[in-house]
Amino acid sequence: MSIFTEKLREVLQSVLPITALVVLLHFTLTPLETIDLQRFLFGAFLIIIGLSIFLFGVDLGITPIGKFLGRGLARSNSMKYVLGMGLVLGFFISIAEPDLHILATQVSEVTNGMYPKNLLLIVVSVGIAVMLTIGLFRIVYRYPLNKAFTILYLAIFGLAYFSTNDLFAIAFDASGSTTGALTVPFMLALAVGVASLNRQTQSAEADSFGLVGIASSGAILAVLILGLFVRSDEPLSGSIPGHEAVAANWLAPFLYELPKIAGEILLAVSPILIIFVLNHVFFADEKLSKRAFRRIFLGMAYLFVGLVLFLTGVNAGFMEVGRKLGMLIAGMDSSIPVLIVGFVLGVLVILAEPAVYVLTHQIEDVTTGYVKRGIVLGFLSIGVGLAVLLSVVRVLVPWLQLWHYLVPGYLIILALSYKVPKLFVGIAFDAGGVASGPMTATFILAFIQGVAEITPDANVLLEGFGMIAMVAMMPIISLQLLGAIYQRNSIKEGL
After folding, report:
1. Contact status, residue 462 vs residue 236, Cβ threshold 8 Å
2. 446 vs 214, residue with greater confidence
3. Do 67 and 191 contact (CB within 8 A), yes or no?
4. What is the pLDDT of residues 209-264, one digit of tens each?
5. Distance between the two ends of the chain, CA-based, in angstroms?
6. 402 alpha-carbon distance from chain centroid
7. pLDDT tens-digit map of 11-59
């Protein structure tokens, strides 16, 4: 119970600031309708309870499963086994990710079926599976992360040269959509399990990060390769479907979303649980005790309940408020308020992302407290705040395109990867995937779409795609800069 109470306290510290900001805006700059405020506040309540239960379930269920499978892969000494398990795990945890389903549905609708939902799901999941496997081999053979990411992003921008601006944005958004609240904790635990058998402690620390970043790059490559075979010279047309209230009753959207989200999460959790059980029964040399086995199943039950409550609160309570806030603030005479609010929302929303908690705690654990989670959270928040600010600027300035940000941004990232400690390279790229979770993909995306909806010459569709890519990129830069600061301080202290 004390563990759950600690989780609840941390979640309250993260969710209450953004709740207070929206309430403050309601009573000052942007008055909301009563029904919208009621839904937002109830959504915040569900997020607090759901996120606390989810994080408790991660500790009991998903982390032990990931470490167990990771140790099994490292012990097997069989390239075929690592290859097979990597492909299976990567495919099933990706294709069941709810955020990816949302993106695939939007892409199918706005491309008039040129990229069907099921085709995109399969292609992206195959890309994730292949790159997850390569990431596991990188840990086993200790190939330098900076060189691996240099090769990957040279290939990505080489393919992007033959792509359209629309598909370029979709590809980078797909990367962020595949690293959700469920897949990130599992990948992080899997990486720790594989790296833990490395006897060199410092190398094991560095190698335990980077798997999320490498795996998520597979989504970008997969979509860009798909675009070489399925493409149109016509620009994307259509509209991103907004959140529609089911009825005038403030509770109705929650009752509508709850069973739908429960089905999606059940689909997401089941493959991991099935693979774990089959591996434990038929393949594993190391057997868990019955008590540990039951504890994992209990943890997965907590995880399921928590994630359903969290996502219901986000989708039914936050999205519409985010869109209306964007429209109301962007509709003012000055553009300064929307820039300030965009930055502050980015700073606060990232604190409520479930996978951010898992990553920052793992960073502190793996580095035995040397890298404090509070400092990582601070740099991460500033990075996402700047990402949202720059996304608002892209809406307001008609000639700005996504590649104007991403190309120089990733050139800076690759240059920094050769200057900062290996540990921070892995942490930074993992953080890029972690930052673009369900809170960002709903509340912040809805806010940006609201700004675009009321801004003359802005395209709601084009500005909608690409925002997740920005949120995934900026934390990589900010955490590598943190690595440079740690390195300088270590040299000064003679460490």
Report:
1. yes
2. 214
3. no
4. 889 999 999 999 999 999 888 866 666 655 555 545 445 678 888 999 899 999 98
5. 39
6. 19
7. 888 788 889 999 999 998 889 998 999 999 999 999 999 988 988 888 8
- Residue 176 CA from chain centroid, whole number: 5
Band (pLDDT 50/70/90 cuts) for residue 181 is: confident
Written as one letter, the residue type at 90 is G
- CB neighbourhood size of 197 (10 A): 14
Q: Which of 380, 389, 377, 250 is nearest to 321 (CA)?
A: 250
Q: Which two tokens stand for residue 292?
A: 């540990």
Question: Is residue 128 a contact partner of residue 91, using CB atoms and an 8 Å limit?
Answer: yes
Contact (Cβ atoms closer than 8 angstroms) between residue 35 and residue 273: no
Query: Where does residue 471 rank: exposed (0-12), middle (13-18), buried (19+ CB within 10 A)?
Result: buried
Contact criterion met (CB below 8 Å) for 322 and 447: yes
- Do 310 and 79 touch, CB atoms closer than 8 A? no
CB 448, CB 325: distance < 8 Å:
no
Q: Which two tokens stand for residue 372?
A: 């404090």
Contact between 178 and 91 under an 8 Å Cβ cutoff? The reply is no
Q: Could you identify the residue written with the tokens 């290859």? A: 83
C-beta separation of 173 from 242 below 8 A: no
Secondary structure (3-state) at 492: helix
The residue to which tokens 């075929």 are assigned: 80
The CA distances from residue 54 to 23, 64, 134, 316, 354, in Å, are 26, 15, 29, 18, 8
Work out the angle at residue 454's Cα, subtended by the Cα atoms of residues 317 and 447, and round it to the nearest 5 degrees. Answer: 30
Burial of 259 from C-beta contacts in 10 A (0-12 / 13-18 / 19+)? exposed
Quick check: 203 pLDDT over 70? no
- Both tokens assigned to 224: 């860009």
Q: Is 210 left (phi over 0), alpha (psi -120 to 50) or beta?
A: left
Q: Is the dihedral of CA 165, 168, 174, 176 positive or negative?
A: negative
Q: What is the pLDDT of residues 406-436, one digit of tens each?
A: 999 999 999 999 999 888 999 899 888 788 7
- Give the pair of three-digit tokens for residue 119: 């085709």
Q: What mean pLDDT comes out for the span 64-86? A: 83
Contacts for 214 with CB less than 8 Å, ≥ 6 apart: 131, 132, 134, 135, 138, 148, 149, 152, 429
Pick the closest to residue 451 from 352, 348, 355, 335 (CA basis). 335
Burial letters for 80-114: b for 16+ Cβ neighbours within 10 Å, e otherwise? eebeebbbbbbbbbbbbbbbbbbbbebbbebbeee
Burial letters 439-463, b for 16+ CB under 10 A, else e: bbbbbbbbbbbbbbbbbeebbbbbb
